Amino acid sequence: MWQHHQRRAAPGGGRGRLVVAVLAAGLAALAGGTSAASAQTVVGRVLEEGSGVPVAGAMVRLVVGEEPVGRGWLTAQDGRFQVMAPGPGTYALLVERIGFETVRREGVHLEPGATELHDVVVSTRAVELGGLRVETEGGRCRLDEQGDALQRYWDEARKALNAASWTAHQAPLRFVVETWERQIAARTSQVLSESREQRETVGANSVQSLPPEELAEHGYVQRRPGYVLWFAPDADVLLSDAFQRTHCFSLEEREEDGVSLVGLAFEPHRDRDLPDVKGVIWLERETARLDRVEFRYTDVDVPLANRARGEVRFTELADGRWIVRDWFIQAPVTGGGVTVASSLRRGGGQVIHEVGNRVEVVEGPDFMWQPDLPLGSVRGMVYDSITGQALAGAVVRVAGRPLRTRADLGGNFRLDGLTEGVHRLTFRHPLLDSLGVEPGSYQVQVRGGEETVVTLAVPRWETLLARTCNPEGRGALVGVVRSRQGRPVSGATVELEGRRTDDGKPVTDVSDMLGGYVFCNVPAGVTRVRAMRGRASSDPVEVRTVEDGWAQADLLLLPAPRVDETTVPSALLQPALVGTVLAQDTREPLPDVRVQLLDDVGDPVRETLTDAEGRFRILLSEPVPAAYLRLERLGYTGAVSEALDLSHGTHRVEVLLHAEAIELDPVMVVVRGRVPKLEAVGFYGRATSNPGLFIRRDDIEAVAPARTSDLLERAPGVRVWRDYTAGGFRRRIVFTRLTLSNGERCFPSVYVDGEMTRIGGSREETEAPAIEGIDVMKGEDVPSIDELVPPAEIEAVEMYMTPGQVPRQFTGLGTRCGVIVIWTRERR
After folding, report:
1. Among 560, 554, 558, 559, residue whose Cα is nearest residue 542
2. 118-140, pLDDT tens digit by residue?
3. CA pseudo-torsion sign 95, 97, 103, 104
4. Beta-sheet strands, E only, within 564-663
5. Each residue's pLDDT tens digit, 445-479
6. How many angstroms separate the CA atoms of 137 and 148, rounded?
7. Which pTM does this prediction carry?
């Protein structure tokens, strides 16, 4: 409870006493403490428009109309968020950043228990703040024609207050906090006594006032038997509807240490007759950043009530979170006074009691902040990496923040006022816009009190590629291979049509990580060039090459047209990918990982989320000869796999993700090896050399059949025959290529773990001898294949559909109708 707790002096004199209790927010509410499995959830990233740089410090909320629902999420360095809705329905996604315009995405529809994936692209356009006047009439606030400007100022203050509130409830940080309590002589301001205590906490330095509705009903100074309570407004109170209903706002301005501040002054309505607070929420005019909240108490019937006041200062950390860096409350001691000699000599026993809290150290995942540590700065130069010319007038800024500067005529720039930690720098220049080039971002480690020097260069990949041929790039042909969605495509083969090397081979190059390719010493004239990757290819592009310079031809890679399914040979199971995602350090399964399968041109083919056990499965309607796996999750680095061949069958992968690292490491994909049991019984040898159909455990998990017969009937030439007996029915497997001479259905023999458990043939056959331990088809009570072995217990299946396919070890009585061999899973 953030409050003054003042006990009145006992009869006969004595010193009054003030107590402040600080309640840290419980760790149960920290991020990740609530599973999204049972709620409607939206996950994604906030990215800057154009550059795609992740945005830290953006508040993401779900809203219905203008009303927020549930708790929002403050993005960290990777720009990721996870917000939960209280129930199914259609919502809007609101993204707010301090100093920038708010972005709203409509039409987010959430089904019961569903998790939706949404990336939000935000503009880099800063808000414009203007002046205003506010008048009050009859105890009610009335905004004049400039009221919209006041709303813009309040919106910026609200964004920071929301971020501070979210950090207090959600973000685990380690704090070293100093608290103090002191007695001050009211007349002379002399400190009569003082005590200090330093402690460590884990949480978010949360300081909480009473619920806003209770303060609105009973006031900010409340009397109790024997003591008086003085309450201060925290972030949650200032954001509440109750505070908005009971207070009016106006504008103030101030210059402080060369910084222009604008203040949102608040005071209680004229018809309020309870002890209340008035004060100012101060913002930096240039950046719209929240600085502090100053307040005093009103309508309090105690001596020296005009001396009661308080202050709360806020700070933004390097990763976008906000904290209360320090606060204090001063209130008069009421009752019998103080009989300290020094106080009496200076004119009386009236005493002001002050209680405060100051953050000395904050430690996060990759930063440490100290209030006395000077802010850092970044100095550098922006230039064209090839010509060496400075980019005068380039706008350099901190990605995701309103902090920016403009390079001078020499391309030099400087950014001051950066907190210690990792920041991302990006820049814009007319040259970039004319070339359609995005500079991306540069990670910079800033240290307090130090100057970091960096060099920013325009990534002129075309010029760089041309210069690999010769210093002037003469006679070069360069370009980039892109997908339909504009992504660079690496590993594409680019060919000059009609050109051959000395040994008669086509002239080709392979696109690099940025999709770029280059050909040197291309003769002047018209040249045709095209790109290929897997089944995808581009249309040939004609380009005129020159001797005294270099030419450029970009290529658009298009997927191959779909083949009519009637012409595709039938296969046992459709291509599929199954796998598990684990945390690399703990090997624990990771739920709610966003798994995307990309085709050979980088376009998404399928998308899914891992379940509570970290598992996922992706079924494909057609083969994908070259595919890539991309994975993303809150708190973990994104990753992309090497190429996967999904042209046939099912593949299993195991993926390890790194927890919050700055550098992105490649994803680790581990393909499960052979099962020892199947190796021992010769399954793999028969699968590669014998005719027949073979099903592995991965295929079973990809299909997830409810019954064994559901699995087997997916194979070509297999049908399920329903045997209606005893008022119900059993499902029996038949091979359509085989019938008996009398037209009866031909049922295959069944082996389980190498032992025959059922003799095949006609259901009506009587010549089959009774063999102990083996079911003969003529029996009415013979269990179906679904009753023999459930899918969960099957490791692999072999199916031989004609007598000529059956291997020698499975040839015997009743196998003229084919054989099904089932291998069960080993018990673990």
Report:
1. 554
2. 888 887 665 544 433 333 333 34
3. positive
4. 576-583, 594-598, 604-609, 615-619, 624-633, 636-640, 644-646, 650-657
5. 888 788 999 888 765 566 666 766 876 667 889 88
6. 19
7. 0.46
